[in-house]
Amino acid sequence: MFLQHTEAMLVEIDRMDAEVEMEDLNLDEPIVDIDACDQKNPLAVTEYIDDIYAYYKRTENSSCVPSNYMARQFDINDRMRAILIDWLIEVHYKFELMDETLYLTVNLIDRFLAVQPVERKRLQLVGVTAMLLACKYEEVSVPVVEDLVSISDRAYSRKEVLDMEKLMVNTLQFNLSLPTPYVFMRCFLKAAQYDKKLEPLSFFILELSLVQYEMLRFPQSQLAAAAIFTAKCTLTGCEMWSRTCEMHTSYNKDELMECARLMVALHQNAGKEKLTGVFKKYSTSKYGYAAKMEAAVFLEDAEC
């Protein structure tokens, strides 16, 4: 028994020594200047970029909604929200809109539903109106109202869309300038030194999260960071999170693990669920068949 106890202690000491060595290696890892390549690009505003993202972090709470807001709705539920978002992702793809537009659309829908009761027969109207507003804010060429009426199978009139637009902007007090997960993704991907595989896979995982009501409990920046972390783990087969990523996201690996595990589950079930808008979109060559990659299931068993 004494020998067994001694051997167990030696194994534990070796494990602890290995962890210390890994931590020392991590501390020796240099932090990359992710904006160095943009110094001569005036559109990158490298002089202000740190202040911009510091502002985004300070204000991201105003983009969030209570994670239980659906309890206040009397005629709709989280499943109806999921159907709406999944459909809007297909509409967004069909209209070839900018990525920013999709994330702002979803943000407007959630912020509006968090304070305004809506009948189920008008939920789709909220969705197309939110997309119209997001297009006006983000796009150069905005779809006309008739296009949105048509894509809704003419369930609503032009007047109904415009009336809902007035109600939404007044309810939200015209506040459209809020950080969404997309703005954090652009910075965090640079920190992760992304390539043609990491970027579409990260966005695939993040868009899966847009559909799920339960993911609203995570801050915008944490969703973005966890999507990239999950994508890196998927591609490498191990837990990968550099000091550069940690510094720019302000999240360490342990802080991302809960969200990452949920994302792995979403990835696993993406092609099996009834709502397959995101899966179909990212199963195309345009997005590098990101949806076809095997999920990082080993994260589900990882220790926090």
UniProtKB/TrEMBL annotation:
GO biological process: cell division; response to gamma radiation
The keyword Cell cycle belongs to this UniProt entry's keyword annotation: yes
Keyword Iron-sulfur assigned: no
CDD domains xrefs: CYCLIN_AtCycB-like_rpt1
Cyclin C-terminal domain mapped to chain residues: 179-296
Oligomer status and interactors: Interacts with the CDC2 and CDK2 protein kinases to form a serine/threonine kinase holoenzyme complex. The cyclin subunit imparts substrate specificity to the complex.
Protein name as annotated: Cyclin-B2-3, variant 2
Keywords: Cell cycle, Cell division, Cyclin
Gene3D superfamilies xref list: Cyclin-like
Annotated Cyclin-like domain residues: 86-170, 183-265
Family, as annotated: Belongs to the cyclin family. Cyclin AB subfamily.
Superkingdom classification of source: Eukaryota
Record field: transmembrane: none
Protein purpose: Essential for the control of the cell cycle at the G2/M (mitosis) transition. G2/M cyclins accumulate steadily during G2 and are abruptly destroyed at mitosis.
Species the sequence originates in: Salvia divinorum (Maria pastora)
SMART domains recorded: CYCLIN, Cyclin_C
